[in-house]
Amino acid sequence: MRQPRPSQLWSLGLGLLLVCTLPAVGWQLISASTTVSVEQKALLDQLAKVQVVYLGETHNSVADHKAQLAIVRELFNRRPQIAIAMEMFQRPFQAPINRYLAGEITEAQLQKETEYQQRWGFDWEFYAPILRFAKQHQLPVIALNTPTEVTKQVSRQGLESLTPEDHTFIPPLAEIDVSNAAYRQKLKVIYEQYHPGHASESNFERFFAAQVLWDETMAEKIAQTVCQQPDQLIVVLAGKGHIEQGYGIPNRVERRMNQQQCGDQPFQQYSVFLNPADAVRTITNPPAANFFWTQPGS
Description:
CATH topology: Rossmann fold
Number of strands: 8
Structural class: alpha/beta
Radius of gyration: 18 Å
Strand order of the largest sheet: 2-1-8-7-3-6-4-5
Helix content: 40-55%
Shape: globular
């Protein structure tokens, strides 16, 4: 299996463990805010009623990806108007995804034209079944992620170093909110784990800016899609680190939706952690996610 690149390690560090596919006897579904168990059908019914659902994954967990596919199927059965938004593809490569869904190119061509191996690199079969499901049912698949070149530039020289061309697939700098002190501290702990004794404050600040840009880019695309297709359920596949406590993507989507006031219905979204580690389940104020989807004994 291909090893994750250093730029991906921070999200892997926020959630490990495994999860099984649906339907399965023994599933434990928990409301993170109340620690009360939730019945599977009732939770899926609830998820199907909102605009955005985040399925927080550990990127190299085969079982997490099986669970994602199963949940997508269940939500599709309840609400066929679904779009699947994926961190795994970068925004400049939406066109080949659309051509694949239209049957114009093969999976091999899709990997090549999206530069999947260079830009993401985890086993293609982790995500291929979800893409095949989307193609079979003609569901939109949305490329969410920031171009690698841009995040690298920010991590090396900061946001102020970006050129006009760099801004093509990212939000305006005025929308890059780095003010969340709790998120800053959370990422600083992770950063220092991977740079023991070599973590200067300036290097961390650039790293933090790159991570926030990553989050804001994905949040912008999700919010745009909600406004363009208000009757559609967007299922977001992203690493747990981008979702935990809402600091990464969810709060930034909500901020945009409150500012834009798209549609007639109040904006609603839920986050689901797939089989989180015990330490993650104890996080409060706010909890790591709205729901924990786990199997007892895992």
